Amino acid sequence: MEHYTKKTFAATRSIGFMLTKARNMLTADMDAAVKQLDITNQQMGIIHWLSRGIATTPFGMSKHLSIDTGLMTRMLDKLEAKGLLTRSRSNTDRRVVDLKLTSKGEAIAAAIPDIALPVFNRRLRNFSTAEFAELLRLLGKFIDDETRRERS
Fold first, then answer.
1. Domain contains 45
2. pTM confidence score
3. What is d(CA 47, CA 100) in angstroms, rounded to the nearest whole number?
4. Any domain includes 31
5. How far are the Cα atoms of 19, 28, 41, 99, 128 from residue 25, in angstroms, in the given order?
6. What range does the domain containing 70 cover?
7. Residue 7 within a domain
8. How many domains does the chain contain in total?
């Protein structure tokens, strides 16, 4: 099904524009909130996922957060310079770099929910429980469709 046509397309009502605008608004809110931790929203994502063990290598983190490897390297450099994580060669495969949070990084990871959840909840304050569930379902469907296309 084609949802857009030349006749009905309005750039400011396109899915690309609306998702980008929503992302930018959330990023600005989150950057302001985590500033007290001396990190950015993107750095928060790295710290959070690393603390959860979801991605423990630069490549895995890049794939998981949809960040190119060059930007990931620069962000890891900054986090390492701040003493929040360490990088070391894998014992099983020297080509692989393992990421590990320092105790300072772990402390920041522990503070993230107290700072991030109010930001999310402020943005979602006008959503009912059912609307929030539907938003997650639809975004999941949108993302899953993209993931399937990447694999084929």
1. yes
2. 0.82
3. 9
4. yes
5. 10, 5, 12, 29, 20
6. 15-126
7. no
8. 1
What is the chain written as a DSSP string?
-----TTT--GGGSHHHHHHHHHHHHHHHHHHHHGGGT--HHHHHHHHHHHHTS--SHHHHHHHHT--HHHHHHHHHHHHHTTSEEEEE-SS-TT-EEEEE-HHHHHHHHHHHHHHHHHHHHHTTT--HHHHHHHHHHHHHHHHHHHHHHH-
Token reading at 44:
């928060």
Q: Which amino acid is at 95?
A: R
Q: What is the CATH number of the domain that holds 121?
A: 1.10.10.10
pLDDT per residue as tens, the chain (152 positions):
888 888 888 888 899 999 999 999 999 999 999 999 999 999 999 999 999 999 999 999 999 888 899 999 999 999 999 999 999 998 888 888 999 999 999 999 999 999 999 999 999 999 999 999 999 999 999 988 655 444 44
Contact yes or no for 61/72 (Cβ under 8 A): yes
Residue 1 lies in a domain: no
